[in-house]
Request: fold
Amino acid sequence: MAKRYRGPWLVTVGQHQMHCPVCRGALFWEREVQLNTAGMTFMRLDWANDSATGIQCAQCSRLELFTDRRQLGLTAPASA
Ligand SMILES: [Zn+2]
Reply:
């Protein structure tokens, strides 16, 4: 079996192919982004924290955030 591909990925959002709005790149890294604030952690309300899926451009590092991971489709490029 081929080595497991770990990105960067071609990304679709719903039916839309995603391209970086800055450099028009088509490959992105996926990363978990915590939406908690320092204040909430201080108040020990970590249970109320939420996270989002960050999609980061592999070329220019522009980061887009999505709170509904189910909208995202990640596929390996054909060359991978
Ligand atoms: Zn970019």
Observations:
- Residues 20, 22-23, 25, 57, 59-60, 62 surround zinc ion (CB under 6 Å).
- The CA atoms of residues 40 and 48 lie 8 Å apart.
- The chain has one domain: 9-69.
- The chain has a mean pLDDT of 87.
